[in-house]
Amino acid sequence: MRIDIITVSPELIKSPFEYSILKRAQDKGKAEIHFHDLRDYAINKYGKIDDYQFGGGAGMVLMIEPIDKCLSELMKQRDYDEIIYMTPDAKTLDQGRANILSDKKNLLILTGHYKGVDQRVRDKFITMEISIGDYVLSGGELAAAVLCDAVIRLIPGVLGDETSALTDSFQDHLLAPPVYTRPAQYEDMKVPEILLSGNFPKIDEWRHEEALKRTKLIRPDLLNQ
Ligand code: ADE
């Protein structure tokens, strides 16, 4: 998978890709990430990429011209499966959407800043809008990093068997069950007996029940999906 990310702050978004699973995915050739600095497409030599909004109001809006220039150049080079805009005023990301995106070949992600982008960018170019939650971040960069992490770890071959994504929370609309490791007893707290029993069908059953219990308590909305 190739992901192109357009941003006004490349340095803000680069580091999550330099560690752990995201780094390993790139080293294994499973994911290729390219950052594009919107300022390289500025409308003047002073690096202008944003302006005040028509109608008044605080906050700068990213202009259509630099984004059009950057997107058009990239779209000439390859076909994108999706052109994604990260914004809080969109449907929230879930595991289902991450699964679907993990199957794509070329993704382009546009990150907003300040008050966002001129609506005409969204109307003309964007095929999918994604929020990562009902809160407002200072920009879309961290949201894009979250999206990329959720998607890239699902690409076959990125995670080893020992960290298979199939047992993750949400993969089957359930939160993950509790997990324990050594020691079997810490102070007066014991690991549930069943996990030490070696009876794997019973352990699976216990985990499912615990997942269900936790989901009913914390996220009952997931059970109605
Ligand atoms: N940009 C600012 N806040 C955001 C959010 N919650 N999700 C995606 N992009 C954003």
Brief account:
The chain has 225 residues and is α/β, with parallel strands linked by helices. It contains 7 helices and 9 strands, in the order E-H-H-E-E-E-H-E-H-E-H-E-H-E-E-H.
Molecular structure report:
There is one protein chain. The two termini are 29 Å apart. The longest helix has 19 residues, at 200-218. This protein has a five-stranded parallel beta sheet with strand order 2-1-6-5-7, with helices on both faces. It has helices at 10-14, 20-27, 64-77, 95-101, 119-124, 141-152, 200-218, and strands spanning 2-7, 32-37, 50-52, 60-62, 82-86, 106-111, 128-130, 185-186, 189-190. By secondary structure, the protein is an alpha/beta fold. It folds into two domains: 2-152, SPOUT methyltransferase, trefoil knot domain (Alpha/beta knot); 169-224, tRNA(m1g37)methyltransferase, domain 2 (Trp Operon Repressor, Chain A, Orthogonal Bundle), CATH 1.10.1270.20. Adenine binds next to loops.
H/E element order = EHHEEEHEHEHEHEEH
How far apart lie the N and C ends? Answer: 29 Å
Largest sheet: spatial strand order: 2-1-6-5-7
Give me the CATH superfamily of the largest domain: SPOUT methyltransferase, trefoil knot domain
C-alpha geometry: elongated
- Detail the poorly predicted runs: none
> Number of DSSP strands?
9
Q: Could you describe the largest sheet, including whether it forms a barrel?
A: 5 strands, parallel
Report the bound ligands by name, code or SMILES.
adenine
Mind telling me the C-alpha Rg?
21 Å
Instruction: State the domain count.
Output: 2
Identify the CATH class of the largest domain.
Answer: Alpha Beta
Q: Into which percentage range does the β-strand content fall?
A: 15-25%
Structural class based on helices, strands and sheet pairing: alpha/beta
